[in-house]
Design a protein that fits this description.
- By secondary structure, this protein is of the alpha+beta class.
- α12 (about 340-350) packs across α18 (about 580-600).
Length: about 750
């Protein structure tokens, strides 16, 4: 009989119900799982799981039952949200939440604030929207900027970012302003709330008790985002804060400890982080169990919103600023500081360091390491990965200059060369720029998760992340392998892929894995002398890349630029896209800065605070201080660029005249990228440059004349002036120093 039961169980398992393929992928990504992690758990190949999610194949027993079990548990954690109906406009004409009737002129102001005392109603009585007249109209046009729906559905630019979670029904943030003596909180979606708080401690209490601000966690083991309150200059004045900081306070990055507002917080048992009360202040009380009590303040008039990335966002009306920052929060995450800080925090939010264990014998769960994360403790880098001044280098002489054989130098390109005679006859110089180049470099990249292991005379493994001491000076770009066939090129017109300045290596040097792997790809043997490798590794940045890519594509779609456009339509759509909605254009800039800044923060340098060379600095205490990951991303980004220029040169005979990071400049007979990029029947060169919106594809950066290029080089007596630095608008203000 038991055999019959087993047969019946097997029959049931063979038909275990599964959600649609798209839902399978959504559930996996919602929990921050990679295809590799799911494949390892189910003991199948990565391509097998990918096929299940694409609907190409269906799982069979015994994997089907386990796969169905996993998806069922994930569905309980991340229930599907009802689809949002298509919108015809980028910005709604009316607030998303109906406003209450406007109070009469005779009605006292107190009637619009929260009641106090024993007669007060339970939570949220103060959350009545004010009259529509109190909501300033957005400064941008409400007319639709496009007619086609976005290829990927993301949070609408005007929708509340709190989603369906009732705890955060008013979105992730609010901009608090004071108008005619009334304190108002402008929320995402057009909602405006009365704020009864008369001090900063009271504002924090109101935010946590009645505001219903925040954002659900981005990963299963993660934490919900703390509410963010943005204070305008008028609100700062109302709450006893300076509208702007003094020069001394700006240098310190905070208010002095004796400021009256800090004393108010201390008396109310609130604490500040080590950052103090600065442009991005975090006010909290120690957590009680799983309950967090923390509010973050953002003060634009204290330069919290860097104009390099946020443009004039800090000068916008409150309703517009709430819309702009709410869109960023919904698509990236609630800002935790600068775009660089947020980029780093996004990595941790998607891969929290710890998770709850399975219940023990007593049914109790414990905190344990979350697989695929960087853990909760920092690890030492390899000596070659340490920047100057690091404690690992304390024994070096004070002014010692490390050679390439002593230090890993993986940086973006800054290379240029003189034009050839044939190029001087071309009328134009055309710059093309790689979209989200560093994000594309992070996509699918295997990086170390733990500490390095030192190995002598290792055999190079392109799948093993690490730093390798190897001589690549024998690689000759005049003859390289492309698609397994040897190809002859003019190596004098190409930068070396192994150095940021494009110079050929002169001997052994330290390189990240992607750089050494590219030398092998070009057809040359490599024999490392030693290496620091990381056997504990994984694709840590995949979820980070996916989040930022989707945010970028969705915001560009709102601006009328789509990922599937033909080249000519794409170039036309990119022309002047920022003017269609200047606020959403700022969001695009902030997303890009989040990518670059987040990668840069992986090797944050000392920031004053009395630091001296050889001493540790604050950033070293973070698990996310990982110069090896930064080096790997930059290495892969530079190699991606070189691979494209080599394929382009082999196919067309054209070579770049300048490269700066993700921008390459070519001499061309016409002013458009289509005048020199090889398209046949609308299809680009495989493996070469392709016009398009997705990360890794290219857009038009700018066009200048060859006469302009030769003129500025002659003006500054710099025959190798990097023209890629100025190709966008042609303005050259001083000689290029490479800084």
């Amino acid at each position: 009989m038991s055999e019959l039961f087993d047969a019946v169980d097997a029959l049931i398992a063979s038909r275990s119900p599964l959600p649609p393929p798209a839902e399978r992928k959504r559930l996996r990504q919602a929990h921050g799982l990679t295809l590799d992690e799911v494949a390892a758990a189910l003991q199948v190949r990565r391509a097998t799981v990918s096929g299940w999610e694409a609907g190409k194949t269906e799982p069979r027993p015994p994997e089907r039952d386990a796969y169905a079990r996993m998806l069922k548990q994930l569905a309980q954690l991340y229930p599907a949200v009802a689809p949002v109906p298509p919108e015809d406009t980028a910005i709604p004409e009316t607030p998303a939440v109906p406003a209450a009737p406007a109070p009469s002129a005779a009605e006292p102001a107190q009637a619009r604030t929260a009641p106090t005392g024993p007669a007060a109603k339970p939570a949220n009585t103060a959350l009545r929207p004010v009259a529509p007249a109190a909501v300033p109209r957005p400064a941008v046009s409400t007319r639709s900027t496009s007619r086609r729906p976005a290829a990927k559905r993301a949070a609408p630019a005007s929708a509340p970012a709190g989603g369906a979670d009732p705890r955060f029904e008013n979105g992730p943030l609010a901009v608090v302003d004071v108008a005619d003596g009334q304190v108002l909180a402008y929320c995402v979606g057009g909602l405006v709330l009365d704020v009864p708080a008369k001090s900063i401690p009271a504002l924090v209490e109101w935010t946590l008790r009645e505001g219903r601000f925040g954002q659900p966690k981005l990963s299963g083991p993660g934490k919900d985002a703390d509410p963010l309150i943005v204070l305008t200059g008028a609100a700062c004045e109302h709450y006893g804060l300076p509208v702007t900081l003094t020069q001394q306070e700006r240098l310190a990055g905070r208010l002095p400890e004796g400021h009256k507002v800090i004393k108010q917080l201390t008396r109310a048992n609130w604490q500040l982080t080590k950052r103090g009360f600065g442009p991005w202040a975090r006010i909290y009380r120690p957590a009680q169990g799983s309950e967090r009590a923390c509010v973050q303040l953002c003060i634009p008039s204290w330069d919290a919103l860097d104009t390099r990335h946020w443009a004039d966002a800090g000068q916008l009306p409150p309703a517009d600023l709430a819309r702009l920052m709410g869109t960023y929060a919904a698509r990236v995450m609630t800002p935790r500081g600068s775009t660089a800080v947020t980029g780093l925090e996004l990595m941790t939010a998607l891969h929290p360091p710890t998770r709850a264990s399975e219940p023990d014998a007593k049914g109790k769960r414990h905190s344990e390491h979350n697989p695929g994360s960087l853990g909760k403790d920092p690890v030492d880098c390899a000596p070659c990965e340490a920047p100057d001044g690091h404690p690992l280098l304390a024994d070096l002489p004070r002014f010692h200059q490390r050679t390439p054989a002593e230090v890993l130098v993986e940086e973006a390109y800054d290379w240029a060369r003189p034009l050839t005679d044939a190029e001087c006859l071309c009328p134009h110089l055309v710059g093309i720029d790689v979209n989200m180049a560093f994000a594309a470099g992070a996509n699918g990249l295997n990086v170390g998760l733990g500490a390095p292991t030192h190995v002598k005379s290792p055999v190079f493994d392109p799948k093993l992340p690490g730093s390798w001491l190897v001589d690549l000076s024998h690689v000759d770009l005049s003859r390289v392998k492309l698609a397994k066939q040897w190809t002859d090129l003019d190596g004098e017109l190409l930068p070396s892929p192994f150095t940021p300045k494009g110079e050929r290596p002169q001997g052994p040097a330290w390189y990240a894995t992607p750089t050494v792997a590219y030398a092998v790809e070009l057809g040359y043997d490599v024999r490392p002398v030693e290496a620091y490798v990381r056997y504990d590794n994984g694709r840590y940045l995949d979820a980070w890349y996916n989040r930022l890519r989707d945010a970028y594509l969705a915001t560009m779609a709102d601006l009328g630029v789509y990922a599937d456009m033909p080249p000519d339509e794409f170039l036309a759509a990119m022309d002047g896209y920022r003017q269609r909605d200047p606020q959403l254009a700022i969001v695009v800039s902030a997303i890009k800065a989040t990518v670059k800044g987040g990668i840069g923060k992986l090797r944050e340098r000392p920031r004053g605070e009395g630091w001296k060379p050889g001493q540790p600095w604050r950033a070293l205490a973070r698990p996310t201080w990982r110069p090896d990951i930064r080096a790997a991303v930059i290495s892969r980004t530079r190699i991606n660029m070189h691979r494209k220029i080599v394929r382009h040169a082999a196919f067309t005979g054209q070579y770049p005249v300048a490269i700066l990071s993700d921008c390459a400049v070519y001499a061309s007979d016409g002013p458009s990228p289509l005048d020199f990029l090889p398209y046949r029947d609308g299809k680009p060169l495989p493996g070469g440059f392709k016009l398009g919106l997705n990360p890794g594809l290219v857009k038009h950066e700018g066009t200048q004349s060859v006469l302009w290029g030769e003129g500025v080089r002659e003006q500054f007596n710099a025959p190798e002036l990097n023209l890629a630095r100025y190709i966008k608008d042609g303005t050259v203000t001083a000689q290029d120093t490479g800084e």
